[in-house]
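Hi P.,

Sorry for the delay on this. The queue was packed all week, but I finally got your sequence through. Input first:
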Amino acid sequence: MTNILEHFKLQGKVAIISGGTIGIGQSMALAQAAVQIIIADQNASSTKESLVELKQNEDIETVALKVDINDPTSVNQMINNVIEQFGKIDMLVNKVGMTYNVTEEELTFEDWNKVMNLNLNGIF
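Then the structure:
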């Protein structure tokens, strides 16, 4: 009989973390569980910085991908790249989000739409 805890082990799993350059602690926790991590973010330089930090602290395979979550073509390319390199995707951690630190009166309709598109549609 298989021990039920075997089904919850994360070693060798593949995780895509969108918006993974902010809140690196979550990435570190997955790395400590021996999860292969793909950090997907629109900011390529901060993605590479996060990747360097992960590689310095943990001995796992990590990949940084520049991805525009608002662009379905970019997302599909990311998925294809991950499956090509790792053969599977086990987890998605959708951490993408944005806001404007302004009053309601200062927030424009265009900015409101940017926030809603990324925060709501981006995780779809």
